[in-house]
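TICKET: design request
STATUS: open
ATTACHED STRUCTURE:
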């Protein structure tokens, strides 16, 4: 069982990374909350920050950065746990 609180404690502040081109230094991975405009359902998505954020804004008309990680696996695990919690 994934401990979501433990994962959340590993999140970093967005100000701790700097944007260089289309990515950040050091590389970071965001967990984003998106709302499907057709159904109103909330889902979490993750990916390389800020590229994934821009993709989600284009696809869904907006998204909120909820958590930022230096580890892709932490972002993926938290996204999965948050989506399962909402089911």
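STATUS: resolved
RESOLUTION: sequence designed for all positions
ATTACHED SEQUENCE:
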């Amino acid at each position: 069982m994934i401990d979501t609180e433990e994962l959340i404690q590993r999140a970093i502040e967005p100000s701790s990374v700097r944007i260089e081109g289309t990515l950040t230094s050091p590389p970071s991975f965001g967990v984003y909350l998106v709302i499907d405009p057709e159904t109103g359902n909330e889902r979490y998505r993750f990916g390389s920050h800020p590229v994934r954020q821009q993709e989600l804004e284009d696809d869904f008309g907006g998204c909120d950065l909820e958590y930022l990680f230096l580890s892709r696996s932490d972002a993926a695990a938290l996204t999965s746990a948050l989506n399962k919690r909402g089911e």
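CLOSING REMARK: The radius of gyration is 13 Å. The mean pLDDT is 93.
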